[in-house]
Each structure stands twice: as structure tokens, then as C-alpha cells.
Amino acid sequence: MKKAIIIVATVMAMIGATVYADRATRGSVPKKTMADGGGGVEGKPAPEITLKDLNGKDVSLADLKGKVVFVNFWATWCEPCRIEIPWLIDMQARYGPKGFTVVGVAMDEEGKSVVAPFINNEHFDVNGQKQTMSYPIWLGTDDAAEKFGGILGYPTSFLISRDGKQVRKFQGLEGYDVLSKAIEGQL
Fold first, then answer.
1. Long-range contacts of 110-116, Cβ-Cβ distance < 8 Å, separation of 24 or more
2. pTM, entire model
3. Of 122, 141, 139, the residue nearest 131 (C-alpha)
4. Cβ(169)–Cβ(158) under 8 Å?
5. Cα angle at 28 between 25 and 32, to 5 degrees?
6. Ranges under pLDDT 50 in the chain
7. What domains, with CATH codes, occur in the chain?
């Protein structure tokens, strides 16, 4: 009987730890924080980061000042990211002419060797059409993620205003309508 109680207690502790870890990596932001801009980043300057694009060229977030930028930290193996990618393709097409861009920051440890084939070969259903990713992809680093305050899970995104200020942090998969409403509020 004592052994059964120990087993049940251990299983319960493991379930509790799993639930806690799941919530932490989904990045559940308290509603109070969501209302004030999400994640406590509102009004902070976007960090200065320079990364490589898929052609090996240095690219900088500072070069995009004057545009509304949606910096999306993602990975090729991330299932929620695969759900979000068609939305981002659509938003790039819809809002790009209004001074908006998505920047996909690929965080795969293997870097270009897995990201480039993914970008070239994966097709996503966007409004009934199969499309590849149509927005800039940069190769991310842990240092870049830390400059944004750290990333608990993917996708994690940051909306940046035309004047280079962080407007909102989206941790975990948000709905299409939530993302588009936030973007439209900056255009």
C-alpha cells in the first residue's frame, strides 16, 4: 500500500510539472499584461541586432526603421509555427504595400542547412493557394533572442512600430485575428 501511494504521488508530481512546463513554454501572458501591450515590452526600443540572411548577408533590424515589423522567432520543427506561417505569408502580402514586413528569425540549431531547404520546399495553404514563405528569413542566435528578453518557446514574436519601439510581445500561438488587429493598429 505504501509503495502504491509513493507511485501515485510521483505520477501526480510529474503531471503537475508537465502542466507547469507546458504553460511556461506556451508563454501564457496574464490578461492584465496583454491589455497593457503584452509581455511588458510596450514602448521599449527594439534591440539592436544584426544577423545573417540565407545568402550570408548581414541584415539589421535598424535597417527596417520606418516600417512596422513583426519579428517572428520560429523553428522548422515547431508545429505551432507551421500553423502560423500561412497567416504570416498572407499578412506580408496584405500589409506589405502599407509599410509592413514580417522578419522570420529561424532558431534551428543546424542553421542554414535545414532552414534553406525548408524555405525552398515547404508549401503552405494560403487562401486556397500553395505558397512558400514570402518574407525575409534571418538565421537567429541565442544572443539575438536574449536581446529581446529571452524566448521561452516558439513561436514568439514582437511587433515593432515605425519609430523602432516594441509594441507587443506574442508568446506562443495567437489567433490570426489577434495578430492582424495588432498589426493594423500600427499601420
1. 111/139, 112/54, 112/139, 114/76, 115/54, 115/76, 115/139, 116/54
2. 0.78
3. 122
4. yes
5. 155
6. 16, 19-37
7. 31-184 (3.40.30.10)
